[in-house]
Amino acid sequence: MLREDIELSRRRLKGLVPDAVLDDADVVVHHHAHAVWSCLTEPGDGVAGALIEERGPVSALRTAFDDGAAMSPSLDAGRRRWRSRLESVDDALDRARRVRARLVVPGGAGWPSGVADLGVHSPRALWVRGRLDSLAHGETAIALVGARAATGYGEHVTGELATGLARRDIAIVSGGAYGIDGMAHRASLAAGGVTVAVLAGGVDRPYPAGHADLLGRIAAGPGAVVAEVPCGTPPTKWRFLQRNRLIAALSGATIVVEAGWRSGSLNTAGHAAALGRPLGAVPGPVTSAASAGCHRLLREYDARCITSADDACELAGADVHLSETAGGRTDDRTRVLDALSVRSARSPEDVARRAGFALEEIRGLLALLELDGRARRGPEGWRRAPSS
Q1: CATH of domain 131-316
Q2: Of 40, 190, 267, 370, which residue is most buried, by most CB within 10 angstroms?
Q3: What CATH architecture does domain 328-384 belong to?
Q4: pTM of the entire predicted model
């Protein structure tokens, strides 16, 4: 490769990779090639994946843009798709720098080994806001997924599971959506755990917009916000379905907490089963349509019945032990409890002001106190339980 090409790659990667990567020319071009492929392809593009697997990312790029190269019909169609996006690469890298996203590539530091099970459909690269080491939990990470329109029961069970897993040093992986996903992330954060949110669009585009603060807290904490599509990419239905396979691949086990008969979270369960990962489901009331999908998984797909954090750990094959550091959040709960009144109901905003927490933090902590039976939620707001 020409020296000018290496210098161009180095300039494009500056601020996106550790400085040590920029010192090695071979590593620079390897990372840059994967970054380019990430910008050119849609998630799960098996044609690109097979070409890269056969020739390596750098040689595959040369082949893809060599007009004189003989190509199969599928490769020729792929080349036309990829060429239409070539001019978007610089803009995507600039957007990533602006939000301080990091580039992680196969074989590089921070690359999660579990995604290799996706074969030629594995990501070309990952874009990460947050801690890269949060992706290394692999076999001991557990995906908690479910319906966006979650019931109170579903959110309650999700909070209990996520809190219990966080106290056992188990990372939680989910999709950052409303409902079950959001509760899983919030409860893990409130318990001092590691949580990873996998997005269908770029990490510079928080989605849903109502979770922008939550996703920011995840990225600023011990976890990460992750996407395989480059910055600037909008989420679409197709990308949500492909995102689900990544949630399953990043996790040692997948648990569907609450899902209707046609819930999208069943797609994640299907990917987990296809990857040979353990699959669990939480039973719900037999009269609840919101749990019909979970009952279907239990009845037809041999999913394990999950009723506690210990069940979840057993499903993933993780050692069950309580974390001493996670217990440090007890002081936070005490502050919130002190901000509540037995007699007068208080809004989350009022409690946040009195306790000195952000509103998103207070919601997670209030949910944990409710699970412990130490706080009660009513139509007028929150009260401290009389015995607390």
Answers
A1: 3.40.50.450
A2: 190
A3: Orthogonal Bundle (1.10)
A4: 0.81
